[in-house]
Amino acid sequence: VQPVESGGGLVQAGGSLRLSCAASGSTVSINAMGWYRQAPGKQRELVAAITSGGGITNYVDSVKGRFTISRDNAKNTIFLQMNNLKPEDPAVYYCKGPGVSWGQGTQVTVSS
Questions:
Q1: What is the pLDDT of residues 78-93, one digit of tens each?
Q2: For labeling, which of 11, 39, 50, 90 is most exposed (least CB within 10 Å)?
Q3: What DSSP string runs through 3-64?
C-alpha cells in the first residue's frame, strides 16, 4: 500500500506542524506504524512509533516532549503533532509500517 504523507511546510523555530499519513484499505489501521525522517546527508531514522491500538507510543530522545504520534483507525490515518520545532528537525518525514511502502514523504523546513 502506498501512503500519502502531508502537512509539512515551512515554519519558524518554536512553531508547530501536524503531519498526516493516509493509505487506502485497512493496512494502516491494523498495524503498528512509525514516522521516520531523513535529513540531507543523514540516514533515515525512526522518530516515533505507535502500536496498532494506539495504546503504546515510543519516541527518539531528541523529540520526546515535543512530538506526539496518534492514529485514527477508522480513517486509516496516523498523525504526528510536532511542537516547538527546532533547527535540527528539518527533514523529509515518512510514515511506514508492515505492508506500507515508502511514500514520497512530506518536507519539513524550520527557519531560525
A1: 999 999 999 999 999 9
A2: 39
A3: -EEE--EEEETT--EEEEEE-SSSHHHHS-EEEEEE-TTS--EEEEEE-TTS--EEE-GGGT
For residue 84, the 8-state DSSP code is S
Nearest CA-CA partner of 51 in 25, 28, 67 = 28
Beta strands 45-50 and 33-38 are antiparallel
Q: How many other CB atoms sit within 10 Å of the CB of residue 73?
A: 14
Dist CA 11 CA 51 (whole Å): 29
Sequence-distant (6+) residues with CB within 8 A of 1 are 23, 24, 25, 27, 28, 99, 100, 101
**Under 8 Å between Cβ of 4 and 21:** yes
Residues lower than pLDDT 70 in the chain: none
